[in-house]
Structures are given as C-alpha cells and as structure tokens.
Amino acid sequence: xxxxxxxxxxxxxxxxxxxxxxxxxxxxxxxxxxxxxxxxxxxxxxxxxxxxxxxxxxxxxxxxxxxxxxxxxxxxxxxxxxxxxxxxxxxxxxxxxxxxxxxxxxxxxxxxxxxxxxxxxxxxxxxxxxxxxxxxxxxxxxxxxxxxxxxxxxxxxxxxxxxxxxxxxxxxxxxxxxxxxxxxxxxxxxxxxxxxxxxxxxxxxxxxxxxxxxxxxxxxxxxxxxxxxxxxxxxxxxxxxxxxxxxxxxxxxxxxxxxxxxxxxxxxxxxxxxxxxxxxxxxxxxxxxxxxxxxxxxxxxxxxxxxxxxxxxxxxxxxxxxxxxxxxxxxxxxxxxxxxxxxxxxxxxxxxxxxxxxxxxxxx
Length: 364
Ligand SMILES: Cc1cc2nc3c(=O)[nH]c(=O)nc-3n(C[C@H](O)[C@H](O)[C@H](O)COP(=O)(O)OP(=O)(O)OC[C@H]3O[C@@H](n4cnc5c(N)ncnc54)[C@H](O)[C@@H]3O)c2cc1C
Hints:
The protein has helices at 13-24, 61-73, 135-144, 160-171, 190-198, 256-261, 301-318, 323-341, 347-357; strands at residues 2-9, 29-32, 78-81, 86-89, 95-99, 102-113, 117-119, 132-134, 152-156, 175-181, 203-205, 207-213, 220-225, 238-240, 244-247, 251-253, 265-268, 273-276, 289-291. By secondary structure, it is of the alpha/beta class. It folds into 2 domains: 2-118 and 251-357, FAD/NAD(P)-binding domain, CATH 3.50.50.60; 121-247, FAD/NAD(P)-binding domain (3-Layer(bba) Sandwich). The strands form 5 sheets. Strands 1, 2, 3, 4, 5, 6 and 19 form a 7-stranded mixed beta sheet that branches. Strands 8-15-9-10-11 form a 5-stranded parallel beta sheet. The chain has a 3-stranded antiparallel beta sheet with strand order 12-13-14, with no helix packed on it. The model has no long low-confidence stretch (mean pLDDT 94). Flavin-adenine dinucleotide (FAD) is lined by residues 9-15, 32-35, 40-42, 45, 49-51, 85-86, 114-117, 136, 139, 160-161, 164-165, 254, 293-294, 299-302, 304.
C-alpha cells in the first residue's frame, strides 16, 4: 500500500497547482494523472488564453501546461505518476489506481479531486455514426496526434470551444461548412467569432441539427431553424454535405469518483450539471476530500489554477502545515478567485455558486 499525505487526482491546471501549493507548505504529495502527459485540456490549446495575467493569460495553452508542469520540478516533495487512471475512492479512505498494468492501493490522509470535465452530447437521429465527434476529441486527434478528422465539418455550438476548434480546423486546412448555435446569440467571445467570420464561415444562430445523414459514416447533416421557444420551424431544413459533425455543446463535471466516494452532489445547470457540495475552502461533505477546477463547476483555466492552489493550501493546512503563512496565502487565493469571477463574464458562475453555497459560502 502506497502512503501519502495528500493525493491529487488529475494533472490539469487545477491538479498541478494544487500539488505545488501543498508541497510549498511542506506536505508530501502524490499526483496521479491517467494520461501519459501532464497539463489536462491545456495541452490541446494552441490559442492564446484569456483570463488573468497571474494565470498566464495571453500565452498559448500548451505553453502554460509546460510552465505548470515545470513548477512541480522545484518541489522534491511531489511524486508524479502518469499513465495511471484512478479507479475508485472507497469508504475506508483507500484509493485504487492502475499503474504499469498493476492494480495499486494508496492510503492518503487528504484527497484533492481535480479530474476536469467531460463533453456533453446531443440526441438526434444517427448520432452514433462514425464521423461524429466531441470538440475535445477533434482537438486530441488534430493537436496531439496530427490526424485530421475529415475534410468538411459542421460545428454545432458557438461557445468559445466551438469557435476556437473551428478556427483550429481552418488552420489545419479543414473546411468548416458552418457553425450553428441554438441560442439567439453567439456564446463565445467576439474575438474568436470574428476570426472565423473573416475566414468566410457562416455562424447561424437559432439553428440546430435535425439529423445526421449516412449509412456507414457521416455524409451530410440536416440543419433546421428554431423559433423563440426552441421549437423547430417547419420548412427551414437545409442539407449540408459534410463528413464530420463536431459537437461543442458544453461540458459537465467528471465527478464519478466523487459520487462513488459518497460526496453530496447537487444539480446546478450554471456550473455544468451535478457538482459537489463543498465549503469555501473546497472541502466536500466527505471530510478530507477536496475538489478543484472544472470538476467543481465548469469554468476556465484561470479559475481552475486558483482553485487548485486554494485546495492544495487548505488540505496542507488541515494537516498542520504552513502556520500563519498559510492563512495569508489562503486569503490571497480567495481574493484572486473573487476577482476572476467579478464582472459580466462571471455572472453565470456567480449565480451557480450562489445556488450551491448561498451568500455566505457555507457548506450546502
Ligand atoms: C477548446 C477549449 C478552449 C479553451 N480555452 C480557454 C481559454 O482560452 N482560457 C481559459 O482560461 N480556459 C480555456 N479553456 C478551459 C480550460 O481548458 C479548462 O477550464 C481547464 O483545463 C480546467 O482545468 P482542470 O484541471 O479542472 O481540468 P482538465 O484540464 O480537464 O484536467 C483534468 C485532468 O484530470 C485527468 N483525469 C481525469 N480523470 C482521471 C482519473 N480517474 N485518474 C487520473 N487522472 C484523471 C485528465 O486526464 C486531465 O488531465 C478551454 C477549454 C477548451 C476545451
């Protein structure tokens, strides 16, 4: 049985920052990542990030991943396992993982779950045909493995992810037939929308996909206009000849381990679906289990990094590390989070957190 003071599950921006912060206060940390590399979503992002300067805004996601992973090299108290999916968190506090094709057990004193989010899908006829991907899968194919998903794509969803992945497809030489969006307005930032519009890609708001066409693979898609009540408008169908349909319709917290661990969960649409109840220091209703990043509510990399730092500090302090220095670091992280979420861009998150935590930020 492997013993550690703090186990961090997930090596994205939240997990990397959690591990660094806990080690900074003096705790021994084991970070486990299921992929063979660290960085989570960041390693697929070739665009320059929005967010705050302290969290490396205006640098490319892939570069931020490298910086965060290198920060861990300064901490000899952190052990990293990659290529090791965590399989379960049990009642007695034991965690199991797969490592080098073996089933291993870990007994941590504290756990920080930073497993990120999973893509949502859409129900429509033939949505299981080869050629239908989530936007994250398209990015993994193109940006990690150098494989084009197809020749001509219909992008469903005009949030930041749909817009950014459309631009990356264009950069890779793939034609984007259209971006469709059910809402009356584009959800992503104007800067991303403008880039693909300038490249001649139509963005059709109040449109949805009616069905995918094809027998053994996608050969086309039927799209259709929606009215103000999200109902299809008869007679507005259009057929597009495409071999890829890319779904960028949102993310939902990847919270399976938290469900299994018995953490209390609540459905909060503004945060992406079921999220763990926790206090303002990100400790869940199961004492000693903390959360950080998209698994605690789908947001952005900047917030994931600060939440990771907060959870790492709080977990280490709960083990007696850090003294008064820990208090001021925690205060500072809370202030940074507050700053990131103020302003119009934070409206949705603030309203979700208010539902979850109440005005005082107490455990729900
Ligand atoms: C196309 C796109 C563009 C984006 N652009 C921006 C942007 O410009 N600015 C910005 O701030 N944010 C952006 N984001 C959002 C940002 O990438 C995420 O908010 C951020 O990566 C969340 O960090 P995280 O650490 O919570 O999760 P992730 O980055 O998803 O990391 C979670 C990690 O946990 C690992 N994991 C999951 N389950 C297990 C398990 N059971 N065992 C072991 N490991 C596990 C995963 O493999 C992954 O490495 C973008 C996202 C996408 C998809």
